[in-house]
Amino acid sequence: MPAPLLATILALAAALANSRADCKRCKSTGLVACPEATRHACTGAAAQRCSIAASCVTCVGTHSVPCTKCGTADEAARAVAQDANRAWLLELVPIEAVLGRKLAHAKSAHFLLTFDVPKLDVEGGETLHGGLHLYLERLEQLFARFTADTGASDSDILGPTHALLWSKEADQEKAALAFTRQSSSTESKLMGKAPVVSIFYDKEWLHEEFELHQALVHQVTHCLLSNVWDGIWPGNIRGGWVDEGLAHAYEIALFGRVRHYCYVESDTILELARGGWEPEVRAAVERDEAPGFLGVAGKNTTELTPEDQLFAWSYVDFVLRAQHAHFGPLARAIKARKSIKEALAETLQLSPFQFEEAWRAFVKEHYALKEKKKRG
Ligand SMILES: [Zn+2]
Ligand SMILES: [Zn+2]
Ligand SMILES: [Zn+2]
Ligand SMILES: [Zn+2]
Q1: Which of 31, 66, 111, 169 is deepest in the core (most CB within 10 A)?
Q2: From the CA of 226, how far away is ligand 4's center (Å)?
Q3: What is the DSSP letter of 299?
Q4: Ligand 4 centroid vs 192 CA: distance in angstroms?
Q5: In DSSP terms, which residues pair with 197 in a beta bridge?
Q6: Counting beta carbons within 10 angstroms of the beta carbon of residue 298, is it exposed (0 to 12), middle (13 to 18) or buried (19 or more)?
């Protein structure tokens, strides 16, 4: 670059820096809050994009406008951010086409959430926009728990999970067919490399707000486990106990009890053996009436009887609590279609018989005889 030109550029840059340094209106950032900001302020820290904010014609989701006092905004960077938001809004058009109307969506590092519940009875969920961000936040919290328990890193996750929450049954029916490829008026999911879960917040079933959250936790756990490492759902390759057991473990960890079953293909929510499970498992072990581990561990998710589900949960609970670092490798071996014998040998160095003995001892030592008082 010729020296005079360089000098001119440096002088201009210095002048720009000076005018920005002096600007009190924008605190020398070159940007001030979008005048529409109060109408589309996003909450929480999880969202990378939000369709409500991105639809603002004034700022296109950047939440700011150039400061007119100093005129030093980085217009190029702003245009890049706005173009990215516009492109993302276009990606959402096929989703909205199915429902025939505009919807609210937000994207985080590991999820896309389409949220259509106008008002929730929970702090932060009083508005559609608030609920959107609250649930996106909760999805990322579940993701953090899942990766801590499985040892999976971001590169082990094959793609984001798309979650859709509806306040109308008819919308669930449309979304279930289009995005989860099955008919459902309650809850449905698509497992694998690009998981999807769609849930109707039916107050006949999911009475209180936390029950919607709990349903989402259960189903998204299935999605994440199916997605991680290989895109293979363990639930239909005789790994139902890990699949359903982990979903129940998270229900119990976060909500104190189980309300949710994937008993049949369509994920009908059944009112079976609700409540804490420790005493029931403990009692069965004490009476020597627990089903054999190999019997339960040879079934698909939808083949697990309500009783099997208790034990599926308990085996997972045992590994998570007594052999935490080995849960991920064990799940991975099962997903790789290794036999249960092989999977246990290479991860826990146990035979199925030894696993069952160790589990029995764990239950006797750690499970309560009577139900503890917990939330819900
Ligand atoms: Zn300024
Ligand atoms: Zn937002
Ligand atoms: Zn705006
Ligand atoms: Zn399930």
Answers
A1: 111
A2: 12
A3: S
A4: 15
A5: 163, 189
A6: middle
Ligand 3 centre from 13 Cα, in Å?
29
Examine residue 372 and state whether it is found in any structural domain, yes or no.
Answer: yes
By DSSP bridging, strand 161-166 and strand 111-116 are parallel
Chain-centre distance of CA 337, in angstroms? 25
pLDDT in tens, 5-36: 666 666 656 655 656 668 999 999 999 999 99
Q: What is the ipTM of this complex?
A: 0.97
The ligand placed nearest to the CA atom of residue 24 is 1
Range of the domain at 253: 233-376
245 in a structural domain? yes
- Ligand 1 center to residue 52 CA distance, Å? 26
What is the 171 CA–ligand 3 centroid distance (Å)?
29
Q: Which residues pair with 205 in a beta bridge?
A: none
State the total domains in the chain: 1
Residue 178 covered by a domain: no
Within 4-147, strands assigned E span 31-33, 49-50, 64-66, 104-107, 111-116
pLDDT number for residue 267: 46
Nearest ligand, measured from the Cα of 49: 2
Q: Is residue 152 part of a domain?
A: no
10-residue mean pLDDT series, the chain (376 residues): 62 60 90 96 97 98 96 95 98 98 98 98 96 98 98 98 98 98 94 97 90 96 98 97 96 88 50 68 94 96 89 97 98 98 98 98 94 52
Q: How many angstroms is it from 105 CA to the middle of ligand 2?
A: 8
Beta strand extents in the chain (DSSP E only) = 31-33, 49-50, 64-66, 104-107, 111-116, 161-166, 187-190, 196-200
